[in-house]
Fold this sequence. Notes:
Layout: H1 2-25, H2 30-38, H3 42-61, H4 65-71, H5 73-76, E1 83-87, E2 92-95, H6 117-125, E3 135-139, E4 148-158, E5 164-172, H7 178-195, H8 200-204, E6 211-212, E7 215-216, E8 218-221, E9 226-228, H9 251-258, E10 264-272, E11 279-291, E12 294-303
Antiparallel strand pairs: 1-2, 1-5, 3-4, 4-5, 6-7, 8-9, 8-12, 10-11, 11-12
Amino acid sequence: MGVLLxxxxxxxxxxxxxxxxxxxxxxxxxxxxxxxxxxDYRDTRRIVRILLEAxxxxxxxxxxxxxxFETDRKRWYYKDxxxxxxxxxxxxxxxxxxPELVGQALPDVVDAEGRELLTMASAAAADPDNxxxxxxxxxxxxxxxxxxxKSSCNRIVTLPDGTQVLLGIGMVELPREREFVKSAVEGAxxxxxxxxxxxxxxxxxxxxxxxxxxxxxxxVTEKGDTVIAPTFRTGYTRNILEYEDxxxxxxxxxAITRLADADSTWVILLTRDPLSMNLHKMGLYMKKVNMGxxxxxxGATAPLPKPSWMK
Length: 311
């Protein structure tokens, strides 16, 4: 009875939320629906929305839009997020966070670990697996000595005069979205399909876009032998098919079983927080890659969002 009552109130409250959305905002656009289906967190949706609106204004007004980007802070800034724009040769033409960068040629700028930021951003913006051109890197924060993880989304925008620019916006310590993990796994699978095992050199590189926000991807065979282990990058192979999470489940085995009839799948695993000893849900995204006479499985994990009463 308690479970049924809980489900009733969940449906009722959700219906109120949807009704309120419809009443307050009118018809939900396909773009807004896509953002809510693609991203779990409000901050992510907000900065993507800013990027898409800035892209539309830049296409219409050209470089004149930069004045609005600078002065209309309520519209174009959000928490620590700000817009930036670069030419295709790496010259900064707008920067909402560090204005003194404008006019500087920065094609070789790298983060604290050596990631080539503009090269990564341009490649991400052109990657069909990476819908909003996400990259993840270390960045400096005002009034802090050390850098922190930053996630930025990027678009290649063609101005009215035909000039192409890289437009982006990012936020420090943005939550690791399931979409980020899915994009990395899908991209890694595409690379394996096109290059075979030669792709492993790139996929093992901790600075590649396939290893993000402290969550490196891993690759296993049908039997569960590691090709790229979740922990060690080289020199160590083990079988993890029977890996058990902190609730005794075998998520890798479950995922591979599901992939007998599918190309990709999500499964849930439970991990214990060492500080609180509570169990937390993680999502494991895994994709099957057929390479001739060999089948490999690419996977990575993302924390699942907590309900508001657990925060």
